[in-house]
Structure to design on (117 residues):
């Protein structure tokens, strides 16, 4: 398999990890969605197709899951297991663009407040 994003020849770890965890390639700097997501565009999170990862598949089968990492758990590589976001740097609500749509949750909020986390 070739390691590139659908919109970039040189991939980043968010989209690359997401592809490994889900089997679906996506846009550079994004995770949790198909290629219709637009990097940095919170509006696109409501129209793009969410994609499940191996973590979600396991949980749906009743398995207990966890994440082991040497990076912070909200960093792009581990977050690709559970987060759905249009930008890998949206680790806290302060980093999400102001004036965006309601319902956009930062990576940390998804870790703490969703069944995936």
């Amino acid at each position: 398999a070739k390691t590139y994003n659908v919109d970039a020849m040189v991939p980043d770890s968010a989209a690359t990890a997401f592809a490994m965890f889900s089997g679906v390639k996506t846009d550079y700097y994004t995770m949790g969605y198909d290629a219709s997501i637009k990097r940095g565009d919170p509006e696109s999170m409501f129209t793009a197709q969410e994609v499940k990862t191996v973590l979600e598949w396991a949980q749906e089968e009743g398995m207990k899951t966890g994440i082991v990492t040497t990076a912070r758990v909200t960093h792009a590589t581990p977050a690709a297991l559970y987060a759905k976001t249009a930008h890998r740097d949206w680790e806290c609500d302060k980093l999400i663009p102001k004036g965006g749509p309601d319902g956009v949750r930062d990576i940390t909020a998804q870790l703490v407040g969703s069944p995936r986390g």
About this structure: The two ends are 29 Å apart (CA to CA).
